[in-house]
Design goal:
By secondary structure, this protein is of the alpha+beta class. It has 14 helices and 13 strands.
Length: about 425
Amino acid sequence: MLDVILHPIKTAEDIYDNTKRSVKIFGTVADGITKAFDATDPIQWSNVGDYIYDSFAYQHASKNFVADNPEIAAIMSDPNAAPEAKQYAQQMHLNYLSDQLGIERSDLLIYNSDFINQGPAAESGGMFVKETGNIYLNTGEIAEDDTFANTLGHEVSHSIDQSNSRNYGEDYADLMGGNLNDSLNMEFDLANLQEITNTVRTSEQWREQNKNNPLIINNTYSAGLFEYDEVEQDVAFVIGGPYGSHRYGHVALRVYDDDGNQYDKTYDFGRYQGVRGDFGEIGDGILKVWNDFNKYIESEKSIGRITNTYIFKTNKEHDLKIIGQYNDMIKELGIEKAAGDYMKQYKLNADYHWGKNNCTTISKTNFELGTDINLGEDITGRGLNWIEKQAAKIKGYPEKTFMPQDIENILNKRKNIIKNVPEKRKNIVKEGTGK
């Protein structure tokens, strides 16, 4: 508390700023004591100290955050800020809060309740998920006076409860939400930034412009709200592990709507024939297009392969763009082989290449081009043994992700996707490469 009151004084403006901070601190102390006299209030004598400490921490963290990051702070009150920028700014502020309170940092994710037709997440300004420790802030249409700062203060209070094994409840969290909103607005005012309260959570125009933003869509479904699904499009990386004596993994890309009424395509590219080269590193580029996902999974299970899926919630525009890219690859090509009406096989013009044109590179490239999501690169070469890595360096080591295990490592690190890993693979080895 003294750090706020005894802030270094250099100018008359500093005296004014510190006076406002001091009034706020003493007002908080008085408010806590006053509320403790009223048995109907959420503050009891037993937790007056916690209320004062938490309130001070909120103000202290807000002061330091705005002072250290004025440009990032300004994003919080910018009505036109992009979702990625808005989430980043809120995450930075949350980090300051967590460090000041001495609690573990949480991941902050913004979601949109407009995609959810029922349940508490459709009606609330945010959520604290005990199981993960994540905090979710709603960008959807809710009460205009419920700002991001108000909701963040509320959810952080729940995080404090969990960290300190206490349960002060919703009413206390409401008070803390208002406290953070007031503290942050005061610091914004002192820094000549637009107050948070002058901008509603998000405008109707902002929601319309960003309704298909992959970050918001993926966050919405990562919250465990899948049963409220109104967005019916998905893209899944289907990654099979090594099996038997076969040390190599495999990646396919599935593009589908949840009901399967419009489209359900699984694109399975591999070195299925015409293997050649000194080490069998080249082959015919074979693309199998599966119209029945269950049939594809059955084919994988038949060889003993355990398959994991990593699902991104997308929109129809993204899905059709991915499908269009694959259609361009088989355009004017005849069907080389078929299995009933559920799988068609094509020989592409471009050969399979172990590091530049394989199941991983094609799946990742088409996904990124179709969704505008950059997954990043990982060229560790998981699955290659020492000899294979040396040979790869001689032939020209790839600059892009090329191993199934490497892209699975990328996906496992992402928090904003649905991971369906039905059973732990017992046959994963460190050597191997793609089909």
